[in-house]
Amino acid sequence: ATERTFSIVKPDAVAKNVIGEIYSRFEKSGLRIIAAKMLHLTQEQAEGFYAEHKERPFFPDLVAFMTSGPVVVQVLEGENAVAKNRELMGATNPKEAEKGTIRADFAQSIDANAVHGSDAPESAAREIAYFFDDKEICPRG
Ligand code: CMP
């Protein structure tokens, strides 16, 4: 079914100047970018976005990293968008990511892992609403 997922190009990938290469992978897989913007997350925005990880030991480092530079956030739409995007990204830890995935090709560490992608349609809906108003989303036929 046609589905939406939420994606972040993280500060490491923006710094490496590979936003376009990552967007190209989305598009080549058939996903459409139906909303996008660049922003530098505040501490509060990053903590709120990752609230489910608040108790994890990596939370402070995660928030520090995600506020260390600008990110690009986008909504991707297409067949099985959540799973398709997770396939494109590869494993969370780039050392475990399959060859040819975004994280294997562009990421260096589990924090600086180039991209975030929603893990389920329910989290996608929540994450999309966290960053985008309905009016900022431009679905196409
Ligand atoms: P992301 O998909 O953005 O969701 C949470 C992030 O926490 C994850 O990607 C990683 O970048 C980061 N992280 C750091 N350490 C861990 C860990 N041990 N397990 C899962 N995620 C981690």
What spatial form do the alpha-carbon principal axes imply? Answer: globular
Bound molecules: adenosine-3',5'-cyclic-monophosphate
Order of helices and strands: EHHEHHEHHEH
Strand order of the largest sheet: 2-3-1-4
Indicate the radius of gyration in whole angstroms. Answer: 14 Å
**What is the share of helical residues?**
25-40%
Any low-confidence stretches, pLDDT <50, length ≥5? none
How many alpha or pi helices?
7
**Most strands sheet:** 4 strands, antiparallel
Distance between the termini: 14 Å
How large is the share of residues in beta strands?
15-25%
Count of β-strands: 4
Going by helix content, strand content and strand pairing, the class is alpha+beta
Mean of residue pLDDT?
Answer: 97
Domain Nucleoside diphosphate kinase-like: 2-139
Subcellular location: Cytoplasm
Cofactor: Mg(2+)
InterPro entries: NDK-like_dom, NDK-like_dom_sf, Nucleoside_diP_kinase, Nucleoside_diP_kinase_AS
Q: Which features does this protein show?
A:
binds adenosine-3',5'-cyclic-monophosphate, globular, 141 residues, 4 strands, alpha+beta, 39% helix, 4-stranded antiparallel β-sheet
Describe the protein's architecture and organization.
By secondary structure, the protein is of the alpha+beta class. It has helices at residues 11-15, 19-28, 43-49, 59-66, 81-89, 102-106, 121-131, and strands at 2-9, 32-39, 71-79, 115-117. 33% of the residues are buried. The protein is built from 7 helices and 4 strands. Adenosine-3',5'-cyclic-monophosphate (CMP) binds at residues 53, 58, 62, 92, 110-111, 113, 116. Its main location: cytoplasm. This is Nucleoside diphosphate kinase. ATP binds at residues 10, 58, 86, 92, 103, 113. Its EC number is 2.7.4.6. Pfam families: NDK (PF00334).
